[in-house]
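Fold this: RNA polymerase sigma factor, sigma-70 family
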Amino acid sequence: MLKLDKLTDLEIIERCCKGEKRCYELLYKRFYGYAMGVALRYCINRDDALEVVNDAFIKIFDKFHLFDPNRSFKPWLRQIVVNQSIDRKRKWLKIENEQSIDEVAEPVWADADAISLLGYKDILSMLNRLPELQSMVFNMYEIDGYSHDEIAGLLNITSSSSRVYLSRAKDKLRKLVGELTAKGYGRAV
């Protein structure tokens, strides 16, 4: 009998699709890091991300009969983690009040060379400093490839609001990158 820890990712997924519950733990261990990386982009802290990941895997195990084994597993997993993150935020997220045009600050343009020196943790830290809705829209649009119409439908906002939140997120990120580069990550802007 083949040892379970010697199975390939594809073999584990195939066995999970067939309902072999003893492979669920292997699947969790193999894809935990990937799922956590996705969740951390949407959640403020590691505890929230862990809860999202665990909820996502529970949903996956519950709905494995819906997975098409002829397709790639990672995009399906990513979609479920993103949806779990959105559902979690939707429970307590209150839409931010619109800023007036006068309150919008002058955009700060960061040095492209300095941006390349930023590490994953620096970028994640900056994303976590964004207001909740701006962070959510930025992640969905720029990283996960959702359209503004799709974002609007998922977050119960208008597509024009999605565009505004994305624009504000980018402005805030430029400002944060400018602050980081001024602190020694590159030449000051």
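The radius of gyration is 19 Å. The domain at 8-92 is CATH 1.10.1740.10 (Rna Polymerase Sigma Factor; Chain: A).
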